[in-house]
Amino acid sequence: MPAGLKRDLSELEDHSEAVASATRTLQLEAEGLSALQAALAAHLAGSFAAALDILSGRRGRVIVTGMGKSGHVGLKVAATLSSTGTPAYFVHPSEASHGDLGMITQDDAILAFSWSGETVELGNILSYSRRFAVPLIAVTSNRDSTLAQAAEVVLTLPHAKEACPHGLAPTTSTVMQLALGDCIAIALLESKGFTALDFGVLHPGGQLGAKLKFVGDLMHGGENLPLTPADTVMSEAIVVMTEKALGCLGVVDGNGALQGIITDGDLRRHMGNGLLDRRAGEIMTPGPKTVTPDLMASAALEIINASAITALFVVENGRPVGIIHIHDLLRAGVA
Question: Both 45 and 76 in a single domain?
Fold first, then answer.
């Protein structure tokens, strides 16, 4: 921040009015959400179930639409649907009138947001849905509106006071629309059995993508594995441990099964006790914690943190196939 623009909070004599305003906004929006929750438990229950039945039964996509602030809500709802296993696309009402109606097919379903239900720009989408028998679900506060009359299913939002003191700027109303969109997306996710693994396929990037990677994606394997037989003298075992530079050494039996682990801590505890002439099997800590390649990377990090260790051997059928180090997880963004 440029010098002179940063303000010291101590210079603000009284911030109570600002905090009171924010508190009123949150209170009014919370009241709107409470009203929506009550409606879903009562008169909205049947309509909500009918909307889900339509959306889950279509072979195409959910076409989300809305104008103004409702359009911004629709953009987010379409993104949430798409990222949770329900293919969706936002079509702007004005652009629809200039060719984007071609994006809507008879295999799709339309989810239209309009608080008043009288948004003029939605007219051509409504006509198109009737002409080509594309199911239409309306999200509106006006059951008798043009939008509601054109829809197969109407999700009627309860009336609530806007946080805007003039009752003009969409605030509480957009929070309610957004919340209902999330309700639809999550209900569809659950009905389809959409899992964290499915989620990972659609979110390969960023920290979320890192958390949804598997241990097998990040582990060291092959020639990088620090392994030694149980009867190896420690003078040789330490050389292997140093070369692999992972801070530990796996000890295996004659069949290649993992028996124990030698860490830097084990070396320090046995230092000065004829360490170099002893066998790896004598120094190792038996029964080390292990994971499988198909474990989520985030779960492996939880085990490492809970156990106060730095690495885990990755095993299949008792045999080590890799090793995952805390540094690998942190570098990948799993935190």
Answer: yes
